[in-house]
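Hi Y.,

Following your request, here is the sequence exactly as I used it, all 121 residues.
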Amino acid sequence: MPIKLIFSIALMVLVAAFTGFNLGNKCDLWLFHTFKDVPVFVTVIASFVCGVLLTLPFTFGKSNKEAVKKALAKAEKNRAKEEKLKEKAAAKEAKASSSSVNFPLSSEATVEATPAPDTSL
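Below is the corresponding structure, written out as C-alpha coordinates. Let me know if you'd prefer a different format.
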Protein backbone atom coordinates (compact mmCIF):
# COMPACT_ATOMS: atom_id res chain seq x y z
CA MET A 1 0.00 0.00 0.00
CA PRO A 2 2.69 2.61 0.83
CA ILE A 3 4.50 1.81 -2.43
CA LYS A 4 1.37 2.61 -4.46
CA LEU A 5 1.00 5.88 -2.54
CA ILE A 6 4.64 6.80 -3.21
CA PHE A 7 4.26 6.05 -6.94
CA SER A 8 1.04 8.08 -7.10
CA ILE A 9 2.72 11.07 -5.44
CA ALA A 10 5.73 10.78 -7.77
CA LEU A 11 3.41 10.68 -10.79
CA MET A 12 1.57 13.79 -9.60
CA VAL A 13 4.88 15.60 -9.12
CA LEU A 14 5.92 14.71 -12.69
CA VAL A 15 2.59 15.93 -14.11
CA ALA A 16 2.88 19.18 -12.13
CA ALA A 17 6.47 19.71 -13.34
CA PHE A 18 5.43 19.04 -16.96
CA THR A 19 2.58 21.51 -16.60
CA GLY A 20 4.77 24.16 -14.99
CA PHE A 21 7.52 23.96 -17.62
CA ASN A 22 5.04 24.15 -20.51
CA LEU A 23 2.78 26.97 -19.33
CA GLY A 24 4.34 29.42 -21.75
CA ASN A 25 4.23 27.10 -24.77
CA LYS A 26 1.13 27.60 -26.88
CA CYS A 27 -0.10 25.90 -30.01
CA ASP A 28 -3.09 25.90 -32.35
CA LEU A 29 -5.41 22.92 -32.15
CA TRP A 30 -7.78 21.84 -34.91
CA LEU A 31 -10.79 19.68 -34.06
CA PHE A 32 -13.22 20.64 -36.82
CA HIS A 33 -12.53 24.18 -35.59
CA THR A 34 -9.22 25.92 -35.00
CA PHE A 35 -8.53 26.73 -31.36
CA LYS A 36 -5.87 29.44 -31.02
CA ASP A 37 -3.20 29.59 -28.30
CA VAL A 38 -4.01 26.34 -26.47
CA PRO A 39 -1.34 25.38 -23.90
CA VAL A 40 0.71 22.35 -24.94
CA PHE A 41 0.13 20.45 -21.68
CA VAL A 42 -3.67 20.65 -22.22
CA THR A 43 -3.25 19.12 -25.67
CA VAL A 44 -1.02 16.31 -24.37
CA ILE A 45 -3.20 15.48 -21.36
CA ALA A 46 -6.39 15.57 -23.47
CA SER A 47 -4.77 13.23 -26.01
CA PHE A 48 -3.76 10.84 -23.25
CA VAL A 49 -7.27 10.82 -21.76
CA CYS A 50 -8.84 10.21 -25.20
CA GLY A 51 -6.46 7.29 -25.76
CA VAL A 52 -7.38 5.76 -22.42
CA LEU A 53 -11.09 6.13 -23.11
CA LEU A 54 -10.76 4.54 -26.55
CA THR A 55 -8.84 1.50 -25.28
CA LEU A 56 -11.15 0.69 -22.35
CA PRO A 57 -13.80 -1.19 -24.38
CA PHE A 58 -11.15 -3.36 -26.03
CA THR A 59 -9.59 -4.15 -22.67
CA PHE A 60 -12.82 -5.24 -21.05
CA GLY A 61 -13.99 -7.07 -24.16
CA LYS A 62 -10.88 -9.26 -24.22
CA SER A 63 -11.16 -10.26 -20.57
CA ASN A 64 -14.82 -11.13 -21.07
CA LYS A 65 -13.97 -13.43 -23.98
CA GLU A 66 -11.29 -15.14 -21.90
CA ALA A 67 -13.74 -15.64 -19.06
CA VAL A 68 -16.27 -17.20 -21.44
CA LYS A 69 -13.59 -19.52 -22.87
CA LYS A 70 -12.56 -20.60 -19.37
CA ALA A 71 -16.17 -21.26 -18.38
CA LEU A 72 -16.77 -23.34 -21.51
CA ALA A 73 -13.59 -25.33 -20.94
CA LYS A 74 -14.58 -25.99 -17.34
CA ALA A 75 -18.07 -27.12 -18.37
CA GLU A 76 -16.58 -29.46 -20.99
CA LYS A 77 -14.20 -30.93 -18.41
CA ASN A 78 -17.07 -31.50 -15.95
CA ARG A 79 -19.17 -33.15 -18.65
CA ALA A 80 -16.28 -35.45 -19.56
CA LYS A 81 -15.85 -36.43 -15.90
CA GLU A 82 -19.58 -37.20 -15.57
CA GLU A 83 -19.48 -39.37 -18.69
CA LYS A 84 -16.49 -41.31 -17.35
CA LEU A 85 -18.27 -41.86 -14.03
CA LYS A 86 -21.39 -43.08 -15.82
CA GLU A 87 -19.31 -45.46 -17.95
CA LYS A 88 -17.57 -46.84 -14.85
CA ALA A 89 -20.89 -47.32 -13.06
CA ALA A 90 -22.38 -49.09 -16.10
CA ALA A 91 -19.31 -51.34 -16.35
CA LYS A 92 -19.53 -52.23 -12.66
CA GLU A 93 -23.22 -52.99 -12.98
CA ALA A 94 -22.68 -55.16 -16.05
CA LYS A 95 -19.85 -57.03 -14.35
CA ALA A 96 -21.90 -57.55 -11.19
CA SER A 97 -24.95 -58.82 -13.07
CA SER A 98 -23.00 -61.24 -15.25
CA SER A 99 -20.83 -62.82 -12.55
CA SER A 100 -23.27 -63.14 -9.69
CA VAL A 101 -25.72 -65.95 -9.04
CA ASN A 102 -29.20 -64.88 -8.19
CA PHE A 103 -30.21 -66.37 -4.87
CA PRO A 104 -33.70 -65.90 -3.48
CA LEU A 105 -33.87 -63.33 -0.76
CA SER A 106 -36.00 -65.49 1.56
CA SER A 107 -35.18 -68.98 2.72
CA GLU A 108 -38.74 -70.28 2.52
CA ALA A 109 -39.06 -73.62 0.93
CA THR A 110 -42.17 -74.62 -0.92
CA VAL A 111 -43.70 -77.81 0.38
CA GLU A 112 -46.60 -79.46 -1.30
CA ALA A 113 -49.32 -80.85 0.95
CA THR A 114 -49.91 -84.60 0.69
CA PRO A 115 -53.05 -86.27 2.00
CA ALA A 116 -52.77 -88.06 5.29
CA PRO A 117 -52.97 -91.86 5.12
CA ASP A 118 -56.29 -93.42 6.09
CA THR A 119 -55.90 -95.31 9.39
CA SER A 120 -59.44 -96.65 9.82
CA LEU A 121 -59.67 -100.44 9.23
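The longest helix spans residues 40-99.

Thanks again,
Q.
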